[in-house]
Amino acid sequence: MSSHSSTARFAEARRVAIFGGTHGNEMSGVTLVNLWMKNSTEIRRKGVEVKPFITNPKAVEKCTRYVDTDLNRAFTPENLSTMGEHDLPYEVHRAQEINKIFGPKGSPEAYDVIFDLHNTTSNMGCTLILESSKDHFNLQMMNHIQKAIAPASCLVLLNEHPLLKYSTSRSVAKHPVGLEVGPQPQGVLRSNIFEAMRVILKHALDFIELFNEGMEFPPCTVEVFRVSERVDYPRDANGNIIAMVHPNLQDCDWEPLNPGDPMFQTFDGKTIHYQGSGTVYPTFINEAAYYEKQQAFVTTRRETLVASALRKA
Ligand SMILES: CC(=O)N[C@@H](CC(=O)O)C(=O)O
Ligand SMILES: [Zn+2]
User: Fold this and answer.
1) Is the pLDDT at 67 greater than 60, yes or no?
2) I need a surface site. Which of 162, 194, 290, 305 has the fewest CB within 10 A?
3) Annotated catalytic residue, options 91, 131, 180, 287
4) Does any domain span residue 193?
5) What range defines the domain where residue 101 resides?
6) pTM of the shown model
């Protein structure tokens, strides 16, 4: 094996989309995208087409996460290839339309970058979500954003778990980037969360412009939190929840959780402790949308990835 570092080369990123309303009750993305569809001055960059797009207009209209099924789980090969336009769930049909406009997923014609804007009820702060540890373009983008917003911070959640990874709207692009900012209740706009999201996007678009202009990005390291396990609420035999997130864990996204630490509190006041084998970093703690997904939080492990030097081809 050769050990010399090489430069990753990608074509210019000419087509970029910003998705809002993949979940119709996550108001920062919905509001920003609607704003930018009216006036795109802020998202315009030299040599790039930046398209703001509401992905689930029916869910936005109803201010609900989805109408028939979760759009951010719908971009499976089966869904994208199935026929029978009329009896399909709304979001499956919509996924096919989105795949036609911004994809096809996995093809050379697909959009270069899709930013998908989400809010969480969890106390996660600014989080960028990646789906691959091998996408050096995205890793360099993470590094650029983190340096640009310092001393504010923005963590990177990496979901390439074989079972817990899902088929997102942004996965249609060559370089998918999720942006998750919280805490913000569903259907609510908070100015701090809105502005934080806006700033991240500004730096992300700046990165693309610099890359297209031919800037060379030296090798760097990126700290990521890799999705490890899903943890459900304790339940009775009928599937009813019998405990809440423990007060010591509530709002403590990204803080270390060690074996023996309090994790849940039953309705009669008993503490349930974390039984894992080592330190994990929980996130999406008590996310409202995840009750239906039987998930109280997800555990992650910290890891440092190396991004190779990057320059346009
Ligand atoms: C709270 C929420 O909707 N989170 C997103 C995370 C992501 O975009 O990967 C989701 O579950 O689809
Ligand atoms: Zn969402």
Assistant:
1) yes
2) 162
3) 180
4) yes
5) 7-224+306-312
6) 0.96
The pLDDT value recorded for residue 2 is 42
The mean pLDDT of 239-268, rounded to a whole number, is 97
Ligand 1 pocket test, candidate residues 72, 115, 225, most atoms within 8 A of CB: 72
The confidence score (pLDDT) of residue 5 equals 66
The tokens for 41 are: 């001055």
Provide the pLDDT for residue 309: 97
* CATH classification at residue 142: 3.40.630.10
Q: pLDDT tens digit string along 230-245?
A: 999 999 999 999 999 9
